[in-house]
Amino acid sequence: GAGVSQSPSNKVTEKGKDVELRCDPISGHTALYWYRQSLGQGLEFLIYFQGNSAPDKSGLPSDRFSAERTGGSVSTLTIQRTQQEDSAVYLCASSFRPRQGHYNSPLHFGNGTRLTVT
Amino acid sequence: AQSVTQLGSHVSVSEGALVLLRCNYSSSVPPYLFWYVQYPNQGLQLLLKYTTGATLVKGINGFEAEFKKSETSFHLTKPSAHMSDAAEYFCAVSDRNNNDMRFGAGTRLTVKP
Question: Which residue of B has its CA nearest to A41?
Fold first, then answer.
């Protein structure tokens, strides 16, 4: 019954390697978000999933970034050919959105994955 | 698309003093407004939200915020700061037409003894 779970909590990778970040949302939450938090940059929206609808990918910074959500639950954010500027904390959040147009539900955040690209 | 501006990346107050963190939003339709707080080494958690109705919203830990449509603002206040209030605060906006929630850059609050 816990909150949003993200793994790993920390990831160090070499430049050019691919990484996968995982998010387990709160059970029953229909909406899932990925954000990136860089020092002094606030939260940068990356991608949004809502139920079975096509995801909103408008925030993905480049085609090296992709995400999927399997079975309407667990989500994986993949970064290919990582660059040093990808170093940041990647936050996942989920929310219960019963139907279209009701976007006033707050988000529940995980503790994030701190990615360091060396 | 909607957006949020937080004035002041760092705010420092003395313990017992008034806390005022500023947030202005941009939205073409009535907004939903939120304040989130991130304590050191913790995840973000909801402090308070405005959706409809009363424009003065009360949240946890004695914080409140007032939605002022004429000023497109949603400033966060607390009458008397406590040491435990030291954290980073994020203002966010969404609306009935938009899937995503957009956040400001955050304001780091320091409370001096």
Answer: B105
